[in-house]
Fold each of these.
Amino acid sequence: DALPIWMVKSVIQVPHPITTLAWAHPESGSLLAGASERGAVCVWEPPRPWQATKPGQEQSAMELQEEDLGDEDQEWQQNATLQCGVAPIRHISFAPRQHGLLLSAASDDGCVRIWEAGRPLAPNSWTLVSQLQVATPRAKGGPGCTSMSWRCYSPGVPPSLVVGTADEAVVMQYVHAHMAWKKACSLKLSAPGRVASIHWAPCLGRPQDLVAAAHGSTVDIFSLQASSANGALEAELHSSLAHDADVWKVEWNMLGTCLGTATVSNRISVWRSNFVGEFSIVSAIQGCSKVAAEGSEAEGMEEGGEVD
């Protein structure tokens, strides 16, 4: 069978190269955020139906449904620019929708900044609600922040996120009594290395949470569980998964039962644990080893670029 053909529907002009992108939950509409190497986060959205209608022209509901507002001639609008210092931003992520429309950004200066939209249905005004100093800035010889992941929402569990650095991962929790974030625990890696990717598994029916952190050619899986004595969060290294090349991306499936890992050798592996908690590869995909030279045109962009 022929593979589906993807077509460019919109092109967004950006003033600086974009390092990472994140989509908001569909409940907030088609909201896209992008971070740059100059410490800025841009938030875009497509034109709304009432904005796409020209003055003096009315459209019925049927006409609005038939009209493809994602066409190339409909430019996405930049709703806001969030300045997060001047250090490059390495990762951005929207919080689970139950916490509200929150956007977090992890930077080389070791800070995680959390912004909140004033009006979730019209997110053109954002407020910096929290600034977490997780690590020492890279400019001062520290590790900085490299990656980040939110914990999925669970009733009765405070908002939590895990932040990867150059030598460990840090779990942060929001304390409602103090209305502030605090460090819950640290995840010590099995070997020194920069955390290239980290992901908090959805917790459905498990007594403990699982966090996967990729560093070098190893993926460490940690189990997190609240202590029965004082309720503090305790972390334990559950497994270490070895790969034949450096791992640059990890992600759990929606149930938290399978872990996908991608390496620089163009190999994607799917891991699953057995009844005793041991992980093994259940499926693997080997991509082409030949990299198209045409894809290197983005390297020449210094002062501007495009997001397709």
Amino acid sequence: MNRIVSGMSDKVGEEIVDVDTESGRNEAESDSTRPRKRPRPWQDSPLIVIDDESRGAKRGCDSRPEFGFQLMDIEGLPTMNSFKLDEHILPNPEFAVLCDYQFDLEWLFGEHPILLGARRLVIVHGDSDSIAASNKSIIDNLGLESRIKMHKPFLPLPYGTHHTKLMLFFYDHGLRVIVHTANMVASDWTTKTQGMYVRDFPVISSESSIDSEFSLYLSRYLQKLGTPLDEARKLLARYDCSNAGVSLVASVPGRHTGLDLHRYTKQAAPKIVICIEVCSAHTFWS
């Protein structure tokens, strides 16, 4: 079943994943008294890639809920089906990309210091010049200016901003993609209902490349962001993204014509929906 992820603009569409109840309990217990099992943080085991044919199967040293759309924790509310950001970040990525509108790096690095372990990190933002300068000073004070770069994409129009909310974590053994809905500021992650799409992709095992609509689209989008994302585009070609299970709809500022008119404007989503409906009808009648 195809699903649409529009969170690269501002929202995410996906099915909610239920977390299995505690195993070994009396089946006669009511749902109201049966406790829920909260998944363990994912930093303590290898990157897990779950495909459509092995959902719920045990991989590596732990079994996970299916990757897909998940809600984020909110302070003071139950957490049985929601997650914290640090449960999705494995240590020491070879390369990482954080795309968002607003960044508070003092809060982000203080709350998630695991990000500082990235060998190289590109922060793509839409902040004002003054806020960007403040964030840059935080990077300089940490002595990480050679490993962490900030980039504000060029805006061809006198209005609008960069608003994509996307994380890419490149590892030797896999790629983790997170499309989410929150700015990188404390209030968005602690007091507001937010969501994220999470998916892992394996390294291509064969010598021949595997092109998928997901990876091709993501590569085109990274190209639109500018040359600081060239390394991410190069690394993306190492991974098999053919089992993404979703279609991306990115927000790219500017005036679009030709094929780009159906890739980056409001016409992109209806085109994908029509494709899904046609494919579903074909499956039903075949």
Amino acid sequence: PRGAAAAAGVQGDAWECMPSALKSVLLPLVCRVSLAEVPRHSPEDREQLQDWNRVWPVSYKVPAGKVVTRSAKIKVSEEDKHEMLKHLGLVRELATGESGQRREAGCGACNAAVIVNPTTKEVVGLGQDQTKSTDWTTWDSRLVHAPSPLRHAAMVAIENVAEGVRSWGNKRKRSDTETGGDTAPSVSDRGDGDPEAEPYLCTGFDCYLWREPCTMCAMALVHSRVRRITFCVPDPKWGALGGAFRLHSLTSLNHHYEVFHWPVIEASKP
């Protein structure tokens, strides 16, 4: 029987020391319970990462000062390069304040984000760092007169896209009410070809940032399902896409995007 096998398979007194509530959960599920050693420290290289992950989920962080030599070579067409440079130019303008918008917005760090639909090449979301801004509006139109540490450029841009999705959903509901559900409003403003399928945030979109995103922003972009991230200025202290951490290389994530580091000197060309 499973219970007997489980008890017999435990090394030492581990089974006897288990709480009765945990035993009742394990007995119907396992044929054997055994003890195993798990890593106490982080792996030193990717070989150890793959080996240790068989026993216990761990992550690998590139040591400070070590040059990453296993970056993937992703082919990009000349047309895509031209589009990427164009959108990076907009990011640079928003981040450095050359258009005057940044100074008026009272932003925090020098960063900006632009989210683009690659199918239509249309900008669907913009964001500037607003961590020091004392006037900003929440998703439900409430005006806040206090700075927020969460108002990073990528977070603001995602919120901007979400507002577009929300408006699209409201238009469709109104249209269904007026027409009895036979038709749906156009979603050409987001570039989605199927009006019957409500778009999920940034699915299939590209995000351009002036500075490398932090872990919070990089993870938010994972949840938003972006297709590609391109940034210019690396952040060795807080960057989550190669600077201090490589979040996009974690195999445990349920979504992965491409990451491009575009040199500032190239992105700054007119």
Amino acid sequence: MSEAPKSSLQSLIYKNDEGGPSLSVLDQLLVPKSKEYLPIKTVEDAWAVIVSMQIRGAPLIAIVACLGLAVDLSANPPSDEKVEEILKQKIDYLKTSRPTAVNLFNALAELMASVQGMNTSKETIGAVVDYAEFMLKRDVSDNEAIGSHGADMLLKSKETIRLMTICNTGSLATAGYGTALGVARALHSRGKLESITALETRPYNQGSRLTAFEIVEEGMPGTKQLICDGAAAAMMKINGIDACVVGADRVCANGDTANKIGTYNLSLIAAAHKVPFYVASPFTTLDVNLPTGDSIPIEERPAAEMIGSGSAPENIKVWNPAFDVTPNKYINGIITEKGVICDRTSDGSLDIVSFVKNHSTAQ
């Protein structure tokens, strides 16, 4: 099996031929200045590129973890007696890479469920490889469905759409096509994307390095395609925006959503300017086990990352959270591959629980 994303932008290259499965990932810290792929041969390699943010994006983190596990076990098969123990150890290790994105934990739980009932190491490894390859293929099709549902929703009220987004949620954050940027791709393919504007997304600049790169590569329209994070309000007031669509690393039972730091700010600005604000994320991002966003573990990144990117004094005290939580009251809907969640409960929360209950059998 060889799966390549349906885009000119490849976040990873995976093959499974006579030599067994192999994986390499695009070093996103070097984009857009260069495109270099890193070989992933062990779970330690997978863990390292996730923690260092050489790959990032909730869907891609989960995919690289599962594919990395498949490559590792295939190259270093444990004995029949040890395979269950070693598999659990490697999965527990991968879970320590980044805590906020629930996709990683859901994917590893699904993978563990897929190996139940296997009697030999060969059968277990085969099941791991099968699941990882299934997940890779599913991600692209799910993203295309997210894009289609999102475009349909936005076009209910407008002929063409002026879109704003934050961070990177495109081909470089997934196996291909993207989530929030997938909505932009779907609109663009229909000739309905009037313009797209990306926030630079400090301090890691995923918007200016990665989303801007995808916008240019895809030839998306607009004359103000990249702005600094602090210009979002002025952009909405002076130039006008029809909708904001962002990604997510975790969506709680009430619709509170964790995403890249700055997303909460953008939701407040959108509310002040009466701009609809949507979250686009796969079904696996919905976490009904957490009642509200107050329960989401928020990763804090090293101070050096902010100091280095901002040319700040080395001895300045820094708070550098990677994510913030947008309250559900500022979110118009959650766009998934199974449909758009707009229904609310009696207390005004987004009804994530009913949606998950109604669609879980269709996973």
